[in-house]
Amino acid sequence: GANQAGVYIGAPGSVLAYGGTSYSNILAAGNIWIAGSSNSDTNYAFHGVWDEASIISNVGSITMMGVSRGNQAVGVGFGAGLGGSGVLINTKSNNDIIISGSNLSALTANDVYASGWGVGLGSNQVIDAGGKLTIAGYASGSFPGNVFGIASQFSSHSFLKSGGDMLLAASAPNSVSGSNSGFNTGSGAIDLGTVIYSGGALTVENAVL
User: Fold this and answer.
1) pLDDT of residue 180 exceeding 80
2) How far is Cα 104 from Cα 74, in angstroms, rounded to an integer?
């Protein structure tokens, strides 16, 4: 199998007009919780959560949690959005965003050289938390290249912003050196080509998760 996910949220094809109001993407007045876990696949791309739509909460928090078990899979990953415009994850009030992703593909007898990411940011993506922003990633892969806890390509034009504190914590304990086009390193706990603005403290750490 390929390009499958525990939870897949596709980009809307167009704006929907209903009752005199236009709707697009995902909007909730309160909290948003999205969690997914993928099956094991030694071939390709069984993601935990894959999102291509913008997700906005007006007065609540947003939590996204994903676990992938496939080779070249992402725990929580984001696509390019509608027409390549990018995915926005946003809490409009003083509320938090938590994104936690794990790739558990590597440490099995049949898939020892697997690669994968914990959390992968998409092109032109913005994650804007009115309160705190926490992104945590874990990747167990041991392939020489393309093993990241948290990653974005250096040409991604992505942006992380928080009104409060921001925490980026990740671990890739089995990663080894290798080459990977479009990234600053071949593998690692955190490899971001991303603009970051924190309204409070900023913590970036290679955590043991």
Assistant:
1) no
2) 10
CA distance 206 to 2: 30
| Residues in Cβ contact with 181 at an 8 Å cutoff, skipping those fewer than 6 apart | none
User: Can you tell me whether residue 177 is helix, strand or coil?
Assistant: coil
Task: Give the pLDDT confidence of 49-81 residue by residue, as tens digits.
Answer: 999 999 999 999 999 999 988 788 899 999 876
Distance CA 106, CA 51 (A): 24
**Taking the complete model, does pTM exceed 0.70, yes or no?**
yes
Query: What would you report as the CA-atom Rg of the chain, rounded to the nearest whole angstrom?
Result: 16
Q: Which residues contact 100 (CB under 8 A, 6 or more apart)?
A: 64, 65, 66, 75, 76, 119, 134, 135, 136, 137
Question: For position 43, what pLDDT does the model report?
Answer: 56
Torsion from C-alpha of 163, 54, 84, 166, nearest 10 degrees = 30
* Distance in angstroms (rounded) separating the CA atoms of residues 198 and 209: 23
DSSP secondary structure string for all residues of 20-70: TEEE-SEEESS-EEEEEEPPP-SSS-EEEEEE-S-EEESSS-EEEEEEE-S
Q: Are 50 and 77 in contact (CB under 8 A)?
A: yes
User: pLDDT per residue over 1-13, tens digit each?
Assistant: 446 788 999 877 6
